[in-house]
Design goal:
393 residues, mainly alpha, globular, transmembrane helix, EC 2.3.1.225, membrane
Length: 393
């Protein structure tokens, strides 16, 4: 059973590290070990590593590491694309080598040999389409159409010019410093795709996330059915109950069945754990981006709204402090007058806070179906957008 507990500990440690790295900055984890691990993985470990390199190799070693960092993080590169292809290719190869010999089996037909290959091919196709599709590049010859398609809300988007491209910036666009271009309805730059996610390829990105989530679920269930088929074909439960005298109950049989699976099929168990963890991460990413699309918001706009709300809160707090200071001064000059009751003061302050409540007004959110339609059929792909081009020309 030592291998069993070792695998459980390995899975828990891996899950903790992955969740800490990806989600440690969330408010729910503030003040917890998850947040501390996130800070260490994101900043602390790298800083300690740079200090170590500097102490051992001097400035030349540090400069080499910084140049590698610049290539990997500050300019387009195919590193994460190659890692994705390596992960999906290696995983599928291991599945073929360890599990295809049991297909067809007790629960799976031979069709799953071909279905799995087709599923992998579709996943890679979506990856390639998302990676090499135009995210919606804003240029001098189409900027007027994007300006009419995405009006300014005068809250988080106001009329301005891109200092790099020297063209007007349509609302919801952003200049990507990595790709060196302005992108319409900019969401984020995805390192895995080596491409921006914008107006024209958000639909492909969502399809990629959803398909790979389903792919991991399919792989986990298929391997589980392979192992269940092996238990049935080899009559493991019958052997344990008849020849070893184990009680025929789930509680009694489970430890022995798990031990047999870990001894005979530990690779398949590790694959199931790996795909199960990845499916949870993909489900979280897909749910986050799907919610953004259904509310007609982007990741970039989420940060803009956070900055705007924070600025508004600071402004209200400054006004409240000024009002309190004036009230104190007034109280000092009118010591002879009767003081206002605490109850009356409380209700007057509450009403003031209600009138100064911060409201997020997203003018681009036009309802569930319209928002979904805008993602599936981007504005720049419609006939009306092309008609605007002929009129302006």
């Amino acid at each position: 059973m030592s291998l069993h507990w070792a695998l459980i500990c390995h899975g828990l440690i891996t899950l903790t590290i992955v969740v800490s790295f990806l989600c440690g900055q969330w408010r729910i984890f503030q003040g917890t070990p998850i947040s501390s691990i996130h800070r260490f993985l994101s900043f602390g470990a790298y800083q300690y590593f740079l200090r170590f390199i500097g102490a051992v190799f001097g400035d030349r070693g540090t400069n080499l590491i910084l140049s590698v960092e610049y290539y990997c993080c500050d300019r387009p590169n195919p590193i994460l694309q190659l890692i994705y292809l390596a992960i999906i290719g290696t995983t599928y190869y291991i599945i073929v080598k360890t599990s295809f010999s049991y297909i067809p089996g007790y629960y799976l037909s031979e069709a799953h040999r071909y279905a799995s290959f087709l599923a992998i091919a579709v996943g890679i196709l979506l990856f390639l389409v998302t990676s090499f599709s135009d995210p919606g590049t804003v240029k001098a010859d189409n900027v007027s159409r994007y300006l009419s398609a995405y009006p300014y809300d005068n809250i988080i988007y106001t009329e301005k010019e891109c200092p790099t491209c020297k063209i007007p910036k349509p609302a919801r666009s952003k200049h990507c410093s990595l790709c060196n271009r302005c992108v319409a309805r900019f969401d984020h730059h995805c390192g895995w795709m080596n491409n921006c996610i914008g107006e024209r390829n958000t639909r492909y990105f969502l399809a990629f996330l959803l398909w790979h989530f389903l792919l991991c679920i399919y792989g986990t269930i298929a391997i589980g059915l392979v192992l269940a088929g092996r238990l049935k074909e080899l009559q493991i439960v019958h052997v344990l109950t008849v020849y070893y005298g184990v009680d025929n109950s789930l509680r009694s049989l489970a430890p022995y069945v798990v031990q047999w699976l870990l001894d005979a099929h530990n690779t398949q168990i590790l694959l199931m754990v790996f795909m199960g963890v990845v499916s949870l991460l993909l489900a979280g990413f897909f749910a986050y981006h799907a919610n953004l699309c259904l509310t007609n918001t982007t990741t970039n706009e989420t940060f803009k709204w956070q900055d705007y709300i924070s600025w508004q809160k600071n402004l209200i707090e400054a006004r409240a402090s000024t009002a309190a200071l004036k009230a104190n001064i007034a109280g000092m000059t009118t010591e002879g007058k009767p003081q206002e009751s605490k109850c009356k003061s409380f209700f007057r302050r509450s009403l003031l806070q209600d009138t100064e409540a911060i409201v997020k007004k997203n003018v681009y959110d036009k309802g569930f179906f319209h928002n979904l339609y805008e993602v599936v059929f981007p504005v720049s792909t419609r006939a009306s957008f092309l008609h605007t081009k002929s009129k302006s020309g």
